[in-house]
């Protein structure tokens, strides 16, 4: 069995507009696939299909050679427990920063001691520990994004789907997050698909890079990334 997520000839319409036009993409365990492209190219739509949030109108999605039946709600719910989907503006709980991480862990079945230990570790890693008692709604947009990333990784997902996770972060904080995500993917040997607007970020974290323009994959890079080729499309 190949350990790969495949989107095969995905087509998606919104009304009469064809948002995705026969898009194919692969994400392998232990590697980060990055999707880049101009605004309106269909990047977020593709990510939502990978997250099983919306079905394609044509084409298919496979995980480890098994086709996904979008009409099978039981199968979808089971798979979504393995998925961490982070939208561009992730919500935070109206609770302390600490509880934004601690409570989801408890709901997933972690013991009080385990949830506390994991929460403290994540807050330290993201340099948010000194703010632990502050209500999350008092945070800046960048801090909320950072908290959402931490909450996501604390749940130990098998599939990471992040939509521009560092877009609202200061450059030095973005670098910290990039390093954390790279290390997580390698150590956990998980899948990762990340939408990014930054060529610098893509060159740093991407093992495979897809350039999506007007609903079509225009370029794919594995290994060395050509900035000049990307700039032709963005």
Automatic annotation (TrEMBL):
Keywords: ATP-binding, Nucleotide-binding, Transport. InterPro entries: AAA+_ATPase, ABC_transporter-like_ATP-bd, ABC_transporter-like_CS, ABC_transporter_ATP-binding, P-loop_NTPase. This is ABC transporter domain-containing protein. Belongs to the ABC transporter superfamily. Residues 5-234 form the ABC transporter domain. Gene3D superfamilies: P-loop containing nucleotide triphosphate hydrolases. It comes from Thermofilum adornatum. GO terms for molecular function: ATP binding; ATP hydrolysis activity. Signal peptide: none annotated.
């Amino acid at each position: 069995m190949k350990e790969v997520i495949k989107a095969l000839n995905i087509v998606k319409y919104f009304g009469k507009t064809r948002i995705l036009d026969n898009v194919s993409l692969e994400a392998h365990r232990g590697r980060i696939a990055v999707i880049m492209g101009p605004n309106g190219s269909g990047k977020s739509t593709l990510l939502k299909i990978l997250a099983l949030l919306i079905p394609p109108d044509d084409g298919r999605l496979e995980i480890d050679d098994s086709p996904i039946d979008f009409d099978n709600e039981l199968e979808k719910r089971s798979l979504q427990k393995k998925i961490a989907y982070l939208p561009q503006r992730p919500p935070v709980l109206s609770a302390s920063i600490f509880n934004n991480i601690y409570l989801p862990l408890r709901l997933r079945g972690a013991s009080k001691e385990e949830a506390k230990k994991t929460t403290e570790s994540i807050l330290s890693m993201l340099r948010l520990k000194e703010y632990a008692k502050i209500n999350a709604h008092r945070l800046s947009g960048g801090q909320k994004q950072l908290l959402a990333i931490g909450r996501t990784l604390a749940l130990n997902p098998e599939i990471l789907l992040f939509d521009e996770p560092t877009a609202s972060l200061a450059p030095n904080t973005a670098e910290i997050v990039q390093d954390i995500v790279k290390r997580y993917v390698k150590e956990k040997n998980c899948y990762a698909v990340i939408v990014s607007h930054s060529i610098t970020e893509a060159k740093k974290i991407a093992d495979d890079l897809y350039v999506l323009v007007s609903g079509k994959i225009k370029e794919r890079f594995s290994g060395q990334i050509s900035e000049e080729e990307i700039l032709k499309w963005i």
